[in-house]
């Protein structure tokens, strides 16, 4: 029997898009130009959901901003991006530990370097304040352990051949437990800690993993009754807006001047809104109506996210201040 851990790792590999640094170049150049044209030189920038750094030209941003913090739940993805760009950074783990990464373009191995007095060698002429920081951040409070238990419950339901009602009740109960336990999660981005923040193509990913795992396992194990899918998707969607609003407000509060937001307006060739992005649009509109934020300078770009699988998005970039 394959373990939930093995299944999770296999599915994670399946979801990985290859060739992003070449395929995303035009989109990356446009997004990078948008940020540098709408933010004055200097100051600090927080990039949420930085991932493998394929959608931003980090060296160009380092020429423009005084300091940049890259934040993501997956530090390995960010280290891969650092390796591609040939950059080095101070690294802060989710529990606040600080290490140093020294990454060459041709070397994907990490090394941690501590210098006397508690400062870390960032490779930037002995500056005590690092120009580039890599920070592990969980925006939602949902962890890998939650997903492993979700996989285990699905496998158990298939193995026991549960009737649709009992299967639905078990999965619904677990989802509600997870969402309830993470309802007040604080990603600890800080209040006015940065001059600018950027969150691009992230809202749609915040609460999509439970559904994605369910669909992939259904392809592998055989389709479940539609009633089960409908009930668990209803629970997931009912919490998506809560999560996107909570994250949007945390990001907005972390920036003193402006927040750059990128949301999927549509998946090209597919009808219907993009879950997560649609709820985030509504949330930002509410902030604007309530007078808590100003939205300005919207621009639409085409992001050929995964050409091999014909997956492209029309992205809307805007400034929330």
Beta percentage is 15-25%
Outline the biggest β-sheet. Answer: 9 strands, mixed
Query: Helicity range of the residues?
Result: 40-55%
* Count of helical regions: 10
Mean pLDDT: 89
SS class: alpha/beta
- Overall geometry comes to globular
Give the low-confidence spans: 102-128
Number of strands: 9
**Major beta sheet, strand line-up:** 4-3-5-2-1-6-7-9-8
Radius of gyration: 20 Å
Write a structural description:
The chain has helices spanning 4-15, 20-23, 25-38, 58-64, 75-85, 144-159, 164-181, 209-221, 226-254, 277-289, and strands at 44-48, 67-72, 88-92, 98-102, 132-136, 194-200, 255-267, 295-306, 311-320. By secondary structure, it is α/β, with parallel strands linked by helices. It has a domain at 4-43 and 141-320. It is globular, with a radius of gyration of 20 Å. The termini are far apart. Residues 102-128 have low confidence and may be disordered.
List the helices and strands and how they pair.
Blueprint: H1 4-15, H2 20-23, H3 25-38, E1 44-48, H4 58-64, E2 67-72, H5 75-85, E3 88-92, E4 98-102, E5 132-136, H6 144-159, H7 164-181, E6 194-200, H8 209-221, H9 226-254, E7 255-267, H10 277-289, E8 295-306, E9 311-320
Parallel strand pairs: 1-2, 1-6, 2-5, 3-5, 6-7
Antiparallel strand pairs: 3-4, 7-9, 8-9
